[in-house]
Amino acid sequence: MTKKVNIMTDTNAAIVNEAISERIKLYRSQKKMSLDELSRRAGVSKGMLVEIEGCRANPSIALLCRLASSMGVSVADFVNVAGKPAVHLIDASDIPVLWKGEKGGSARLLAGTSGPDMVELWQWILHPGETFESPGHPEGTSELLHVCEGKLTLILSEETYVIMKGCSAVARTDAPHAYTNDGNEVAVFTMTVSERAR
C-alpha cells in the first residue's frame, strides 16, 4: 500500500507538486505508458497515480524514486533540476524541498542528471529526534554522505553507523535504510545518490 505522506501546505510545496504532476503526465505520455502499466511497473496503486497526476497528493521521496525508475527518468527530471546539455543553472528559489520533518527538518534536491542512469545531489537537515526511512532503492544504488553539522546515524540492513561532523560515508542503499538524528544538535548533511538503470 502506498501512503500519502508529508502533505505540505505552503506555496512552494504546491508549486513542486504541480511540477511533479505535470512531468509525470508528460513522461508517461511520451513513453506511451498507460496508468495501468505504470501502476504495475512501479508497484503503486492506480488510484494513487490518479491522485498524483491530479495534484491532489504529495508523494514521498521513495514513491517518486519508484515512479522515476519505472519510467527511465530521474526524480530530478520530475522537479526540473536535472542537468541539460552543456550547463543548467538552477536558481536557489527553484530548488525544491521534497521532504519536511515533524520538527523542522528538510530534504532539498539541489541538482541531478536526467535518468535512467542518474546522479542526484541532496541537502538534508534533521533536527534532534527526526528520522527519515527508505524502503531501499533499485539494485546497485549507492549514496555518498558528508556530515557538515552535528552527527548522523545511518541504519542499513539492521546495522547502525554513526557519521560525525566532517566525516563521510559510502553506502549501498538498495536495502531498507534510515537516517536519524539521535543527537542534541541539528544534523546537516549532503548526499549524492548514484543509480544505474536496470
TrEMBL record:
Keywords: DNA-binding, Transcription, Transcription regulation. CDD domains: cupin_XRE_C (cd02209), HTH_XRE (cd00093). The keyword Transmembrane helix does not apply. The keyword Nuclease does not apply. Residues 24-78 form the HTH cro/C1-type domain. InterPro entries: Cro/C1-type_HTH, Cupin_2, TransReg_Diox_bact_type. PANTHER family: HTH-TYPE TRANSCRIPTIONAL REGULATOR, HTH-TYPE TRANSCRIPTIONAL REGULATOR SUTR. This is Helix-turn-helix transcriptional regulator. It comes from Rahnella bonaserana. The lineage of its organism: Bacteria, Pseudomonadati, Pseudomonadota, Gammaproteobacteria, Enterobacterales.
